Amino acid sequence: VVVNTCGPYRFYGEQVVEACIKAGTHHVDVSGEPQYMETMQLKYNEEAAKKNVYIISACGFDSIPNDLGTVFVEKNFNGVVNSVETYLETGSSGNKSSGASLNYGTWESAVYGLTHAKELKGIRSQLFKDQSTISDIEVDTIEVKGPTSISVPGYEKNVTFGVLYDVAYKIIGTDEEIVVSTTRLKRSLEMWQSLNVDAQVWHPFRNEPIPIIFDLGVDKDFGTGAVKITPAHDKLDFDVGNRHLLNPIQVFTEDGRVDNHSVIF
Predict the structure, then answer these.
(1) Locate the Saccharopine dehydrogenase NADP binding domain: which residues (predicted)?
(2) Distance between alpha carbon 48 and the CA centroid of its chain, in Å?
(3) For the CA atoms of 124, 129, 132, 137, what is the dihedral angle to 10 degrees?
(4) Which candidate, 65, 10, 64, places its Cα nearest to that of 36?
(5) Which of 29, 72, 123, 215 has the fewest CB atoms within 10 Å, i.e. the most exposed one?
(6) What is the SS3 assignment for 92?
């Protein structure tokens, strides 16, 4: 096994990976550079598999201890792990330090990683070309103000976005209802469910209860002031769900198809 600890790996890593595969030697590194790691997977995975060689990245201090801590929590505590936060305290001994410091190679890796972050989109589109689900890094965000006709790949005609639909949710145990304004009527399936929230409404499409939560992330002056949470829609929805310890419903498979939760549609 060759353990490579010399970065930045975007400059010095590929040569070692290639040599290890040719020699039939396993390769381990401590890289935290997504572009390097995914490029190596894209270029050398097939060749490494043929020679039964393992190429393993991200085995540094910021990876393995975090993974071990997460595994420990999952095995020793009841419930589902919602999120993990890591705290790192550093110190020095001997001569007094003039302040915080960082290894030059780590700093250089970070600078180049941020500079070339957008290049990950192209790499991942090739790496996962057999799957149609995508991440936020592959999405170009367009702000739409009001109904707007937009050309969408795969559609012969333009698709209209920005149209608000009002959907009434009956409050369970009362005769009242909450009206939610949404531009994504078909995504009403992708709501969050909660374990410990008392206030609930009845979902008009799924025919089951869903929780009511209160969060400052909602713009009370937009639409009716009530919104539904769609965990796969954007980071804001995801963060709101995490803050309230909600469990998301997975509605898409890894190949981009809707799963059994979408039978009614």
Answers:
(1) 1-56
(2) 28
(3) 10
(4) 10
(5) 72
(6) coil
| Cβ-based neighbours of 34, under 8 Å, separated by 6 or more | 113, 120
| Contact of 70 with 81, CB cutoff 8 Å | yes
8 preceded by a cis bond (ω within 30 of 0): yes
Range ranked top by mean pLDDT from 79-88, 107-116, 138-147: 107-116
Q: Which regions of the chain does DSSP assign to beta strands (E)?
A: 2-4, 27-29, 55-56, 148-150, 159-161, 165-171, 177-182, 192-193, 200-202, 209-211, 247-248
Its pTM surpasses 0.70: no
Length of the chain: 265
Q: Which of 22, 56, 52, 62 is nearest to 40 (CA)?
A: 56
- Above pLDDT 90, what percent of the chain? 20
**CA 133 – CA 155 distance, rounded (Å):** 17
> Among residues 215, 153, 163, which one has the least CA distance to residue 186?
163
> Over the stretch 173-224, which tens digit does the pLDDT of each residue have?
877 777 777 655 444 444 334 333 467 888 777 778 888 777 777 777 766 6
Q: Is 113 helix (H, G, I), strand (E, B) or coil?
A: helix
**Distance, CA of 213 to CA of 81 (rounded, Å):** 20
- Distance (Å, rounded) from C-alpha 221 to C-alpha 52? 59
Q: Which residues contact 181 (CB under 8 A, 6 or more apart)?
A: 164, 165, 166, 222, 223, 224, 226, 227
The answer to whether 8 touches 108, Cβ cutoff 8 Å, is yes
Residues in a beta bridge with 178: 169
Alpha carbon of residue 257 to chain centroid: 18
CA angle (239 as vertex; 237, 242 as ends), nearest 5: 110
